[in-house]
């Protein structure tokens, strides 16, 4: 069955209420009863949650074949939690597990043999990168992986589409009551935003930390009342890889040019006024937008009301310099962000449901004025792919891309027209992540195209000296330079389902033919 | 059917899974699936939650006969929210409503005619005082009122025993996204701990404030993602009655004597060591304990790890003087507490579920070392009544009494032996609120009795010069002075059910015979 962005979704995946994508606001006003965990009550006082070892804890959980286990990715490439837990479970010989991760990457390379031997047969994740991305692309997972946006993952858990049996939550610190935080100790990750929904909806919740603190560990991102067990390990992660040092600002002239265009698009549109809200990504051009934005803000004599997202040093600097009144942080990308969220009283941790869940009563993405996002590919209908490489391998992550694009009043994609002789702007996407109806402006190094649906924005930009063009002109330029791309050959086997944030299917990804 | 404290519970109330009280830890390890609200999703961005008037908001809610509405009591005797909302609903002619309040008192006197005309036919509350207490005592409510502890209310909502259709949450401040707080504006109440469960479990949530703030209202006690409507009214309450000025420390020699005894009991028992946890009430003797505790703490060179509860100035002073490392606050009793929770980074707001819910994974009450509580009456089995006057009228509130008593390692009741020629220590209670098995020490002005179940505590106190005696001796002394009390005459009509925190019935209250 073809969906609203023209992608064919095989009928076999349209079961148990799963529908094809039907528009970004298809589920507005959708009514549902939230899922809820099964709780074992601790009426007796002074129960000791603190376990002696991770192995003992895992034995106490009474794991069974077919269960769903969850992990978060706040320790990023430095995460030791998922690897440690799964090695023990692997040894125990439990099979047919479903892993509900907020993201998977290099740190989870050890899962690949577990895909091959049937320990893990299902996965839900945002990022599917590196070894695990390659394994899924190659069809090593028994069932197709669910690729979900950050908001979509929360939605799937809150609606009950995913039922988590056990959440394993790595934390930089925890007290004996189970109050856990991204602050303190040798493995600070800043926030625990993605794990919030896991703690609230999983039947059993384990906090794993290398830093058990005395007294009450407040303020806590994860509340002790939701936690069954606390266990101390030697190390939750590799600090050097958890939060990288400060990200260096790009000096690439092409990226700087695009960043300058983006800032001008923002400054020339109607939502650029005191109190505006803004999110930008951590890519070179996206990040560089902030430095150009400052002068426009000075000129207009306005402040940003709030900045949101994965937070990086440039946003932290703007907060501390008074350009931004508040930062809403669902992921700390670097050490300055980690330090700031623990010390600046106007830098707030928010849960991922607050950030991006499409089916609550109004996530912050709904109130974004501007978001600046990247793209691996974008087609002439402004549909964007951020998941699959043009070689067919899964190598990206929707992250908050579809969520912020749907919510923001002005969604700007910034991407170079070409990347090492591959066109970014194309007639056909390898797969669709974010529908074009939620994308408003495309900024490239060859010109700026406005989605024809947004005549309001077009009119405002026509008053500037920005190099406006149509997206057809961009695709023609790209084709002139690198020709039309050879279609990649796929087998019939579907290896991943690309879910839109509301639970509908926006695309499927097939195994690359070797 | 007789329950474990010997009270007769009529069979008609033992339906739909309601059982008689069977011991304080009867439901330990009880497994249940939490309730969850029905949510109407706000997928479309930028929905305006801000309403024009309270009346319009109430009309938008589509209220129906028989619904359950909830209110919190953080504005205490100054609350205008419940009165304003219910006046409008009364005018609309909606009937047969169930009011799930965290407490009711003087500020809700206008509900009395609504009990009489069938607008309100059921009530769940902790406190039932003043006019509304009298009306219920006189049998004016169609169904018996449910008297619940603070922890019991959260439990009843989280298990689904109470399903809230609409929560009306008064707040000192709120932003347009629905993020609400007890801070800011002319009506500060400090915290919104009791409303936390309402926001999370009600189908529709309305925040009512007199202070809509620009930007993001963070940190927020109530999250915008749980809020449907925000409405501004002229005044949420009478600031003079919301948080009283500083409470004056008692100079009553009898109260001071009992306070000194309590402090010595604390200092002489094994849990008095660095990092101990402690809660005390706002009554004269309870409050005065803090001033005697200081010198014992100096002597032992120890600090309190955390203090909890309804927080008052003496506890705030101890925090600021370094005697306490952290305060956990579920209710701000006076202006110093309100100011401190908004300014001291070691004074934390906790939800009422974190405070006292018996059926989560371990509320803070479970980790209390000491709690000092009052009593209207206590019997020779150490059962306590804090709800019903010895004249038969409902005039108190369980509050956190049964919750903290069950959780604390050492539960101390402080009460004068006699109050204006009525004995506090008696052979028979007017009704039971807290079972004697959870009460360890009774401190009176005539001596100190230790529950025979606690030989460990008795042995420790025997090493002091405290005037120990048996509770039988105390009751005999009381009877010598004021004789045996005349039994009060009641009709057969049950006007209130006294629920133990775990959902079982510990007693029923009947209508007083005139």
From TrEMBL, chains A, B:
> Which terms does the record give in the GO molecular function aspect?
citrate (pro-3S)-lyase activity; citrate CoA-transferase activity
Q: Which Pfam family would be a valid example here?
A: CitF
EC nos = 2.8.3.10, 4.1.3.6
**Compartment(s):** Cytoplasm
Tell me which domain of life the UniProt entry assigns to the organism this sequence originates from. Answer: Bacteria
Instruction: Cite the entry's keywords alphabetically.
Output: Cytoplasm, Lyase, Transferase
| Catalyzed chemical reaction(s) | citrate = oxaloacetate + acetate; citrate + acetyl-CoA = (3S)-citryl-CoA + acetate
Indicate the principal place this protein occupies in or around the cell: cytoplasm
Q: What is the name of the protein in this document?
A: Citrate lyase alpha chain
Q: Which gene encodes it?
A: citF
